[in-house]
Amino acid sequence: MQIRDLIGGDRTVASFEFFPPKTPESAERLFATIAELEPLHPSFVSVTYGAGGGTRELTHDLVVRIRRETRLTPVPHLTCVGHSKDEIDSILGRYAEAGIENILALRGDPPGGPGCREHDWNGEAFRYAAELVDHVRAFGERHGVADGRGFCIGVAGFPEGHPGCANRLQEMGHLRSKINAGADLVITQLFFDNRDFKDFAERCALAGIRVPIIAGIMPVQSVKGMERMADLAQGARYPAPLLRAIQRTDGHDESVRRLGVHWATEQCRDLLDHGVSGLHFYTLNKSGATREIYRTLGIRSSRDFSVT
Length: 308
Hints:
Number of helices: 10
Radius of gyration: 19 Å
CATH architecture: Alpha-Beta Barrel
CATH class: Alpha Beta
Helix content: 40-55%
Largest sheet: 8 strands, parallel, barrel
Order of helices and strands: EHEHEHEHEHEHEHHHEH
Strand order of the largest sheet: 1-2-3-4-5-6-7-8
Number of strands: 8
Oligomer: single chain
CATH topology: TIM Barrel
C-alpha cells in the first residue's frame, strides 16, 4: 500500500511515528504500544533513525518486523548521513524484498545532533535530501518496486522554518528541489500553532509545490518534555495561548498532559476542517494521547483492514 494512493479519499489519512528500541525489553514494550494502536487502523507508521544514523540497524529490523508481524504499513526513515550509495542500495533492496513500498527520505542529523556545525557534508555520498530522493526514485523504478511504480517517497517540511536555513525564501527552494527530484508528499515537523502550518502550505503553493502536505502533531506531555523538545527541534515555538493555559494548571505532569491532548485535538479538528491532507502523530513510543485524540475526533482511517 502506497501513501499516495490513500490521500484524497473520503477518509482521514492518519499516521504514527515510532523510534527504534535499543534493548530487547524496550522492543517488547514498543510492540505492546503498536498492538494498542493497530486497532485504530492507521494509514501508515514511520520509524526514525537516531542522529547520525546511530540506530539504523534497529530501524531496519523494526521496519521489517512491523511488515511481517502486523497489518500496518511501515514507512522507514532513510538519511544521507554516513551512507555510501552501495549501502543505500543494500537497504533499499532489503526493503523491496520485504514488500515495503514507502520511504521517508531525509538529510538527517549529523552524529553531533541537529545543532552540530562541524560535520563535513562534502564527504557524504548524498549531501542533500534531494540527491537521496533522486537515488531512491531511480532505484525503485530500476528494480520494479511496486509493480514498476517505484517507491512512494516522502520528505520533510518545516512550518516554523528549517533549523539549518535562516533564509525562508531559500528554504522553499530547497523543498521544491526535493519535489522536483521525485518526492510524492511532504510530512511536516511538529508545530503548535496552526497559523504556522497554514502559512507554510500557502508558501508551498506560491512556490509551485503541489504535492500533499501531512501535518505533524505532537501532544505536549509535560513541562520537562516541552523543554527537551525545544532543544531537539531547535526552537519549537510554543504560542502564548498554550503557555498561558499551561500556567493555569497546577504544573503536575497529568494536568499538563490532559491540556496537551486537548490542545492537539483542537489543532487536528481545525486542520481537518480546513482540508489538511493528513495527520502524522509523533507518539514518543506511547499510545495513550494518540488514542484519546482519535476517540475524541472519531477518525475513520483511510486504511480498510478488511482488505489485504
